[in-house]
Design goal:
Chains A, B: Keywords: DNA-binding, Transcription, Transcription regulation. 2 copies of one chain form a homodimer. Chain A contains 6 helices and 3 strands, in the order αβααββααα. Chain A is mostly helical. Chain A is elongated. Chain A folds into 2 domains: 94 residues, Arc Repressor Mutant, subunit A (Orthogonal Bundle); 45 residues, no CATH class. Chain A starts with 14 loop residues before the first helix and ends in a 20-residue tail after the last helix. Chain A binds a DNA duplex through helix 1 and helix 3.
DNA sequence: GGTTAGAGTTTACATCTGTAAACGTAAAGT
DNA sequence: ACTTTACGTTTACAGATGTAAACTCTAACC
């Protein structure tokens, strides 16, 4: 007797759907009017388009609905940070293991980070350094093949 | 008089196409037989499928072809690191600016990095720290709205 | 109580992706 | 020269995604 069926929270959120989720994550909950209003100010999408995105997010278990009079209140069923982690990690997982470090360097270079963020990253990295391997092997070729990019 | 038409190197590489690109990036160049052979060992795809992917990559300007007898030699037209950066950055760009730091922390936690990588990251971060803002504002809502996630 | 507006649902449709068979053609072997 | 191979191209097709109109109700207003 689960509250929500929660068959599998793990349906990937598409690029367009991210825009909707960000609104709901930030507000905590929102009705469709609010979502449509705010998303329209960021993207040149018709209300109908945003309705479709909301519907798909509900169907894929990313948003919960609570009846409120004639309309629904939408709330996130998956945490924002978890969605971000999943998105980043799946992207990284398909890249050469050996090159991921450099990818981080470049991504971090191009990202505005707060002093606190940076300090936390440094701390984590220093901790990670204590158990880090000397080298990471390129995993672009199948088992048994040599090569590195 | 460009060597290659290079209309726009910026066509995104899809998940399946990454598998092909990684082989070519690692080998520097490869004929289709080699690509099909190696990719088949990593993915349960038919040769025809891999041929399709190669064809699409050529069409979208990610791979160059050089005739060699009855077949082609394929070479990357976009650098691996650039593709990785683009993929990561576009992912990050659609996430809340305020949460990106934490996303990095989590992603780095789940990624194996070499001592050298980590040290380079720390150095970069220490450098970045000198000009970092105290806080990053949540940019999930449209201009003029308050809110943070 | 009848009308209406607006919320959610259905339907639509082109393009992109993943996956693959079929085909045309020229090189390679006999 | 003839056949076979196999490389690249064309075609196929279902499901995902972006984008949006049309439709169905029911709650709200007069």
């Amino acid at each position: 007797m689960a509250i929500t069926e929660n068959t599998e929270i793990t349906e990937a959120i598409t690029d367009a759907e991210w825009a909707v989720m960000r609104i709901v994550w930030t507000l905590g909950e929102a009705d469709s009017h609010t979502i449509i209003d705010l998303v329209s100010q960021q993207h040149d999408w018709k209300a109908a388009t945003i309705k479709t995105l909301i519907g798909r997010l509900v169907k894929k278990g990313a948003l919960a609905t609570t009846k409120n009079g004639r309309q629904f209140i939408y709330t996130p069923l998956i945490p924002e940070q978890a969605a971000m982690d999943t998105a980043l990690t799946s992207q990284l997982d398909q890249m050469c293991a050996m090159c991921r470090g450099q990818a981080f360097v470049n991504a971090i270079d191009q990202t505005e980070l707060s002093q606190t963020d940076i300090q936390e990253l440094i701390t984590h990295l220093q901790e990670k350094l204590t158990t880090a391997p000397t080298t990471i092997t390129c995993d672009c070729l199948p088992e048994g093949y040599e090569g590195s990019c």
